[in-house]
Specification:
Elements lengths: L5 E13 L3 E8 L3 E7 L18 E8 L4 E10 L8 H17 L7 H14 L6 H16 L12 H12 L12 H18 L5 H4 L3
Parallel strand pairs: 3-5
Antiparallel strand pairs: 1-2, 1-4, 2-3, 4-5
Helix pairs in contact: 1-2, 1-3, 2-3, 3-5, 4-5
Length: 213
Amino acid sequence: MNHEDTAVQGMVLLAQPVGENDKRLVLLTKELGKITVFAHGARRPNSPFVAAANPFAQGRFVLGYGKTAYNLHKAEITHYFRELTMDLETLAYGSYFLELAAYVSQENLEGTGELALLFYSLKALLSEHFSNTLVRRIFELKTFVIDGAYPDISHLKLSETARYTFSFIVGAELKKLYSFHVEEGVIEELSRVLDDYMKRTIPREFPSLKLLS
């Protein structure tokens, strides 16, 4: 790494083809928040970035800064989450997590919390111990908490279990988020709260959610 390069820890949220051989990546990084990175030659079969320049790839990225965006110089990937691609529903949930993270993340604002949340949530999706719906609702609520605004449930009619679950998710350390189970009825209560909140606060649709409807 030369003195002009920047090393960051992050995950690829989006990868789009550019020209004949390149890719445009959106990375969520601990140090710089959400950034745009160009991976030149990444679509060539012999490129060192073939595997790294794909959604879900997480690790260390060495970047150089061009005229308008970063350029990828090196990637050391620690997690690819390839198992997500083996099931269409799980892949849709994982892709939605990336889409929501890309929507709420900001440039030049460190993304440590959201990056860790993504990691733990994708791991939970791959676990047989949690329903995908519960993982989705935990991810959504904690994303809003990290972003600084989340639903006010004080005036809502909810069961005591749903209120406790909501409060636990809000206050829990990230590594302890996926440490409980609740009945389907509680998940349905959380779903109603979060669906209503998103309709009121997020003026867009997420493509991956359409695959789950």
